[in-house]
Amino acid sequence: NAGVTQTPKFRILKIGQSMTLQCTQDMNHNYMYWYRQDPGMGLKLIYYSVGAGITDKGEVPNGYNVSRSTTEDFPLRLELAAPSQTSVYFCASSYSRARDYNEQFFGPGTRLTVL
Amino acid sequence: ILNVEQSPQSLHVQEGDSTNFTCSFPSSNFYALHWYRWETAKSPEALFVMTLNGDEKKKGRISATLNTKEGYSYLYIKGSQPEDSATYLCASSPNSGNTPLVFGKGTRLSVIA
Lengths: 115, 113
Description:
The complex is a heterodimer. By secondary structure, chain A is mainly β. Chain A is built from no helices and eleven strands. In chain A, the strands form two sheets. In chain A, strands 2, 4, 5, 6, 9, 10 and 11 form a seven-stranded mixed beta sheet that branches. Chain A is globular and about 45 Å long. In chain A, 34% of the residues are buried. By secondary structure, chain B is mostly beta strands. In chain B, 0% of the residues lie in helices and 55% in strands. Chain B contains no helices and eleven strands. In chain B, strands 2, 4, 5, 9, 10 and 11 form a six-stranded mixed beta sheet that branches. The model of chain B has no long low-confidence stretch (mean pLDDT 92). The interface between A and B is medium-sized, with 23 and 23 residues.
């Protein structure tokens, strides 16, 4: 299993540009998540999904959109990039089975800079 | 909103020292407590999941304890090595695990050779 994969690894955007961060998992997990990591602030939840066709806002959803058309994929869309969105973005997935206690598996991250 | 607090925020220890740090979480609606190890430029990796009051888990020189009644967990590292340098995250899983984990901000450990 590849686990959770994210592309691209790095990206520089100009203010106002748009882009999609890709996330795919091959573990048949039903839950998927997007986090951003800001220095000294730990992980902040942007959006999450409990299954195909279902998404929910996390703590910091403004400026982002997501979709979940398949179990495997959970892309994150930035429509109008702003410098405040400069961050490292992590995708994660988990099972909702009780015995897994929602343990999350993380992708390698995407480092995004908006100039 | 559930608050998970970790202390200290950062820690510097000499190689060979033992160390510990704390995670506190609301004890109501508790379901599980997770510890993750997060090396710089990598992604977080799960260390332990604990669910029962009094639980103690161990992996090599790293161990963790759980007190669900008072809402805290300790992570211990015995004989710290430079490769232990990382950020250690804890996360609470409330409400039967059907909602996202709530992460603390982490404790950043630096082990000096």
